[in-house]
Every structure is written in C-alpha cells, then in structure tokens.
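#onboarding

Welcome to the new folks! Below is a worked example of what a typical request in this channel looks like: someone posts a single protein sequence, and someone else replies with the predicted structure as tokens. Don't worry about understanding the tokens yet, we'll cover that in week two.

Example request:
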Amino acid sequence: MDQQLLVFVTVVEKQNFSRAAEALHMTQPAVSQHIQMLERSIGTKLLNRSNKYVHLNKAGEIVYHHAKEILGLYTKMRNLVDDLTNTATGELSIGASYTFGEYVLPHIIARLREQFPLIKPTITIGNTYEIEELMTNNQIDVGIVEGEIKSKKLHVEDIAEDFMSIIVSGKHPFAMHKDLTLQDLQNETWIVREKGSGTREATDGMFDKFQFSPKDMMEFGSTQIIKESVEAGLGVSLLSHWAIHKELKLEKLAILKIQGFPIIRKFSLVTPSTKFQTKASEVFVTLLKDKEGYNII
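Example response:
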C-alpha cells in the first residue's frame, strides 16, 4: 500500500503519468497499474484524466491529504529504526518561517553539515501558519517559527531572542533624528508582511501596544521586497535585526531611535509531541540550542 500511495502522490504532484514514471524510475504502465490498484482498494476513482494532465477529484483530494501524512509517518518510523545504530544519518526535513529560515538557518545548517556530513537536510520556508500546518501533517521533522503556534498537539520551546526595530531608508530625513515618537510616523506609508507571518503578528502587536493606526499601509509577501522598498524610500517597516544587518553596515537602511524599541520576540522550536525523535533531529536541535550558532551578526 505504501508504494501505491507514493506513486499516487508523485502522479498528483507531477500532474502527469509519464513525468511521475520518470521521477520514480518506473515504466508508465507500472505507474498506471499502481493507480488502478489503489483506486480498486479505495473503491472509487481518484483522478480526472485528460490528454496531458491529471487532476484530483474530491475523493482524490482526501486521499492525497492523508497519503502525504502517512508517507511522512512511514519515513519517520524508518528513520527511527535506522537510528538504533546511533549514527546521525539520513534525511532531515526542516521548516522555518522567513526571518529565521532566510537569515539564521543557513549558518546553522553549515555547522550541521560540517559536523554530521551524512545528514541530508531539506528546508521549507513559509510563514508561521504554513510551518504549523506542515508539522501537524507530519511533513517536516522540525520547525522554527517567530509567531504563535495555536495547535496544542505540538511541542513549542523558545530557543532565541529576536530584536525588531522600525527602519527607514538611509537617506530618509528621520534617519539622523534621535528624539522621535511613533506619532511622528503617522503620515508615513507602512510596509508590512502578510497575515499569518510572525513579522506581521509582531507588527500588529506593536500597533495595538502603542495604540497606533497607520493612515497608509501596503502588504508585501516577503521580507526581501520590504527591505528593497524601504531602501527605495517607499515607506517604513518593522523588521528583525537579523534581516537587516548587512543593509545597516552599508548604510542603505537605518534604525529609528524611538522610545520603547527595539521590540523583543522569541524564535520558537516546534516538534511533534511524541517522545520519539530521529538521531538527525536530536543533533540538529542541539545545534539550535547552542547560542554560539547565533553569533553571525
């Protein structure tokens, strides 16, 4: 059954039987046979077929969602059994929200590969909500987020602090001011992340704390485009010091000196509640908790 599920998931994600066959190193008739056997065992058709593509029907959507979870659990079970040899090897699936994933995680992965070269990490970057969904569905082994995790089925542990400040272009008139208040920024355009991201959660919390309501606000889907936009003079934003340290050194961005800032938030480690953990996950978590790994600024 697990082979049928793997073939089914691959067909769905490749949207084509021949591409799935190539990815799985199988013949196209063999792929078709696995799909037919799965549909017979389920008792209904799962795919709508056209000349070039295949698409999920309603039953297929249900099977695909659970197949991903089942395959994730199977991989985790196999890795746990392999770990009885006490060797940190194999695949490690990591999910991280944008600030940590793009600006901190690469340095920790470099240390991981140096110390444990047989571990093969794969990284998924998403907002806090997306990482929580992946963890809940057993599609990643470890998650690191900046926002609040709402699921009670996951283990959440603070691992590091993150400092956030309001930034402007290095050429902005306010860049050299030392006695600003948040109200001085009332007429500025605020550039914020999308709902569901940890940075947006921190920004909204800052607005509530200071009872501040921007007159003009734009929502962008990545930290990088926000930095570029602020540097270009399009507006102001609240961002992590991790995300802007290079731009600060080059004086392309400036941190505004405002009472009550920087705001401190936490990076949180998210893991399954189960007591079982692969050896690869264990050594990675140990590196995450080593504060020397955060001395990169």
